[in-house]
Design a protein that fits this description.
The complex is a heterodimer of chains A (about 450) and B (about 400). Chain A has about 450 residues and is mainly alpha-helical. Chain A has one domain: Formate dehydrogenase/DMSO reductase fold. Helix content of chain A is about 70%, strand content about 0%. Chain A is built from 17 helices and no strands. The radius of gyration of chain A is 24 Å and the shape is globular. By secondary structure, chain B is mostly helical. Chain B has one domain. In chain B, about 75% of the residues lie in helices and about 0% in strands. In chain B, α14 runs antiparallel to α16. Classes of the chains: A mainly alpha (about 450), B mainly alpha (about 400). At the A-B interface, α1, α9, α10 and α11 of A face α8, α10, α11 and α12 of B.
Chain lengths: ~450, ~400
């Protein structure tokens, strides 16, 4: 065999997913110390900053409730703007977690074990941020419970034909199942934390949360069945949530909104943005907590490839929409798309295209998929681009209505801007709390993909 | 790991498989020719259905193979050569495209200048929908597909000889951009050959719809081929019940994916209720077409969904191929339902004619014959693939 083919053979062997000659004990130690050690000063500082930003969110929402939705820049004809943009942006971010933990599980992608806990936590926090916007957009937030089909008591019944109502069901189902899935996955690790806890209070809290986990063979069997069932249930949810979100737009008859490719296109975009956010946060966590042995270059390389694939699908959808807008021969469709690319919001459109379609193309190159700086920058660029995608879809389709007398332009108010800014505070605050109290890497699952877990030394099938 | 399977087809087996296929092809072509003399219009429409049906499955095979390479998949190595030998037949399909090209005036009324002159919409589209550009595009599609399939197939069979693992990497390098090229060309092929049959109508999801049907049908075909080989005494140990279980999962998943795409298209058009879009479905709800429109969600989704959901079903080596055959049937109905209602002389009712069967026999017989001949030339498993051993001992945990 020539040296070239030997090199090829080396690259083709299955990579080790945990590096640094770890054994089961060192894995437990490495992950547990992040939450168990004395809270670092930097954490307090970070928490002070993020919780202050969350306070801004609270202040803006209080101001909105006290004054009215008019404090946002929404106008006629732009009835939906930053509020729905932010909603779709955060919901999209929430998609990576379930994709990693459910779909990649069903596809037997073992590298998922190092990032799934982290990504699932991110999913839950992102869904929490997303929920704020439609909730407050209803105006009288104290009667938001009317959205639920409660027994006839108000003399009214929600309109089941409205996709906005489907959103309520889709997002709440998704949030619930994601939480369950995350929690079930946590149980063995919470058991570990309980056993390691020194203080009595910690022992009690972790003890209650671990649901009496003893790690017996029977426990593991039940656990694995439950995990598999939840993975099966979560898989269609990954597709359904963003499909329903896309219905908010696509069932209408507004050019730029009504197009049949929207459901799969939105799902691909959601996974794309979700992976970008996982990448951004994971690179920071990996650096601070020295997780290089768990989140290896192989993991990051795979994440880059998924971003490349989903970013290119999004590009395919942009191109298809544009082509069909011309092909349809429909004057309104054609106008909407030309207006997007060359009208008053052309700047937003081209930000979207360059961030979402062009920037991930860098990941065709292996050298850039192994460059942490490039990864970090591109992941942030993608996050920006995916926010702009929703903004472009929502605002450019609305701002020039069928009659030129109903044309307008949207400018955000300080309340729009600070509410969005504040939601990052909430997201990061929840994250900081998560890091301090729960294992950020799924210890028991990572052990399962280590060679020691396989009696015959074959860590792969 | 010791495996005692035969990895090369015996000439008796090849002969046994080729005889019925050549008979099918000969009878199919003869009857098609007779039908062509009697009813030219019907021939072209029937032929288009059969051609697109087989082509969509070959493109599904190309997609399957490229995905295996891109993801460095281990479990699928023992079935990959079968998939490669299906996909490589796009070259025969390029030749079989000729009757479609000749039939353009019958099939596509945008090809008639006198029709276009009276139709403002078609005038706007004339830059795209014209005979010359239509044929140029078809040539480009086939060149891309032939290039991809030849490269990947060639590398894979070279590896059988020299065992060089770098072929696996080369194929992965072809596959990543290959998937992108396949999606672009395949989508436009679907716009051209199916969507433009009704040139006023448009749907952005149509390309994905076309792929989702081809993808699920290819998995079905792969199951059928593997089982037929098993019955003839091949690959009993290389393609185990574990592999069938996985193929069954993919069959199930792609069935759901097809439904998701088909539902998205129908639902959004139904809800928005814009006449220029709903007309496509209205044609398919007229007369006896309604029965076909009702059949699709039942036969292409509900029945296979519930039939395939259990683990037992996916591991049953009689039930699974039976369901695979059913999916292949349902996919044919789907293509038939996309093409035939636009046939102006067809009327509002289904007239399933001998030409439908004859053209199907002709295309399936021809492609099947070439497939078997090609399968006989090389090993039926990539014998020196670096992940072969992993695939041989693969088990669902």
């Amino acid at each position: 065999m020539s040296s070239v083919s030997e090199d090829a053979a080396n690259q083709l062997s299955r990579p080790q997913l945990v590096l640094g000659g770890q054994n089961f004990h060192t894995v437990t130690e490495a992950v547990s110390r992040i939450a168990e050690g004395k809270t670092p000063k930097a954490w307090y500082l970070a928490f002070a900053i993020t919780s202050s930003i969350t306070a801004i969110l609270g202040a803006m929402l209080a101001y909105l409730v006290a004054t009215g939705v008019g404090v946002w820049g929404n106008n006629q004809p732009i009835g939906w703007a930053w509020d729905i943009t932010n909603f779709v942006f955060w919901i999209g971010i929430g998609h990576a977690g379930t994709l990693i933990s459910a779909i990649l599980f069903l596809f037997r992608q073992k590298w998922r074990t190092s990032i799934n806990r982290f990504a699932e936590a991110m999913t839950l926090f992102a869904v929490a941020c997303a929920g704020i916007y439609p909730l407050f957009h209803v105006g009288r937030v104290w009667v938001a419970w009317w959205l639920f089909p409660l027994p006839y008591s108000q003399g009214m019944w929600p309109n089941f034909r409205s996709p906005l109502l489907w959103d309520v069901f889709a997002v709440s189902t998704y949030g619930t199942v994601s939480l369950l899935f995350w929690y079930v996955g946590l149980i063995p690790d919470i058991g570990t934390f309980r056993d390691r806890a020194k203080s009595k209070i910690k022992k009690m809290i972790y003890g209650a949360l671990s649901l009496g986990w003893r790690g017996s063979g029977r426990h593991w069997r039940h656990y694995e069945i439950a995990y598999m069932i939840l993975a099966g249930l979560s898989t269609p949810l990954v597709l359904s949530v963003h499909s329903v979100v896309s219905f908010d737009f696509a069932v209408s008859i507004i050019p730029g909104w009504h197009t049949t490719i929207f459901p799969p296109y939105f799902v691909a975009g959601a996974i794309f943005s979700g992976f970008a956010m996982v990448m951004t946060l994971m690179l920071i966590a990996r650096w601070i907590f020295k997780l290089e042995n768990f989140v290896t270059m192989v993991h990051l390389d795979n994440m880059c490839k998924i971003m490349l694939a989903t970013g290119t699908i999004v590009g395919y959808a942009y191109a298809t929409e544009f082509f069909i807008a011309w092909y349809s021969g429909n004057a309104y469709e054609k106008f909407t798309f030309l207006n997007r690319a060359f009208g008053p919001y052309a700047w937003a459109y081209w930000i979207m295209v360059s961030c979402n379609v062009i920037s991930p193309q860098l990941f065709w190159f292996k050298s850039l998929r192994s460059n942490l700086t490039v990864m970090f920058i591109v992941s942030i660029i993608i996050n920006i681009g995916m926010w702009f995608e929703r903004f472009v879809i929502i605002v450019t389709s609305l701002h020039r209505d069928f009659l030129p007398s109903s044309w307008g332009y949207f400018s955000p108010t300080f309340v729009d801007i600070l509410t969005f800014f504040g939601s990052f505070g909430l997201f990061l605050t929840l994250f900081l709390l998560f890091i301090r109290v729960l294992p950020i890497i799924a210890v028991s699952e990572v052990k399962g993909v280590m060679p020691q877990a396989h009696a015959h030394g074959d860590s792969h099938h | 790991m010791k495996v005692t399977d035969k990895f090369k087809l015996e000439s008796a087996t090849i002969q046994k498989a080729r005889t019925p296929l050549i008979a099918l092809a000969v009878v199919g072509w003869l009857v098609s020719l007779a039908g062509f003399a009697i009813n030219r219009d019907q021939f072209y429409f029937s032929y288009l259905v059969s051609f697109v049906y087989v082509l969509s499955i070959c493109l599904g095979a190309l997609f399957f193979v490229m995905i295996q390479y891109v993801t460095t998949s281990g479990w699928s190595v023992t079935v990959r050569r079968l998939a490669e030998t299906v996909m490589v037949n796009v070259d025969i399909l390029a030749v079989l495209f000729i009757p479609v090209a000749i039939g353009i005036p019958t099939l596509f009324h945008w090809s008639h200048p006198e029709v276009v002159n009276k139709d403002l919409l078609l005038q706007k589209k004339a830059g795209y929908l014209n005979t010359t550009f239509f044929i140029v595009r078809a040539v480009i599609y086939f060149l891309v597909w032939i290039l991809l399939t030849k490269q990947i197939y060639g590398n894979s069979v070279s590896q059988d000889q020299n065992g060089n693992p770098s072929h696996t990497q080369t194929n992965a390098k072809w596959s990543a951009p290959g998937i992108l090229l396949l999606f672009i060309t395949g989508s436009f092929a679907a716009f051209d050959w199916l969507m433009s049959l009704d040139p006023h109508w448009y749907s952005t999801i149509f390309g994905i719809y076309f792929f989702s049907g081809g993808g699920v049908s290819f998995v079905a075909l792969l199951i059928v081929i593997a089982i037929l080989l098993r019955r003839s005494g091949y690959l009993e140990k290389a393609i185990t019940v574990e592999h069938y279980h996985d193929l069954g999962k993919l069959l199930f998943a792609f069935t759901v994916f097809w439904t998701y795409i088909a539902f998205s298209q129908y639902f959004l058009i139904w809800y928005a209720n814009i006449p220029e879009e709903t007309i496509w479905y209205i044609h398919r709800f007229e007369g006896s077409w309604k029965a076909v429109s009702v059949f699709l969600p039942l036969g292409h989704f509900l029945f296979p969904f519930f039939a395939l959901i259990s683990r037992t079903a996916k591991r049953h080596l009689v039930f699974l191929p039976a369901m695979a055959l059913w999916i292949l049937f349902a996919h044919y109905v789907d293509i038939y339902w996309m093409v035939m209602p636009t046939h102006a002389h067809h009327g509002p009712n289904i007239k399933f004619l001998f030409l439908d069967l004859a053209t199907l026999a002709a295309v399936v017989g021809t492609v099947g014959f070439v497939f078997v001949s090609r399968l006989g030339k090389n090993a039926i498993v990539p014998v020196r693939d670096p992940f072969l051993e992993e695939s041989l001992k693969f088990e669902n945990v």
